[in-house]
Amino acid sequence: MTAHPIEVGPKDARYDALRRGFNQRWIADPAYVVVATSADDVVKAVGKFVADPANSQRRITVRSGGHCYENFVSSANVGVIIDVSQMNRVYYDPEMSAYCIEAGATNWHSTTQLYRSTGLALPGGSCYSVGLGGHVSGGGYGLLSRYFGLTVDYLHAVEVVTVADSRTPKKTVARKDSADEALRTSRRT
Ligand SMILES: Cc1cc2nc3c(=O)[nH]c(=O)nc-3n(C[C@H](O)[C@H](O)[C@H](O)COP(=O)(O)OP(=O)(O)OC[C@H]3O[C@@H](n4cnc5c(N)ncnc54)[C@H](O)[C@@H]3O)c2cc1C
Question: How many whole angstroms from 6 Cα to the centroid of ligand 1?
Answer without folding.
Answer: 23
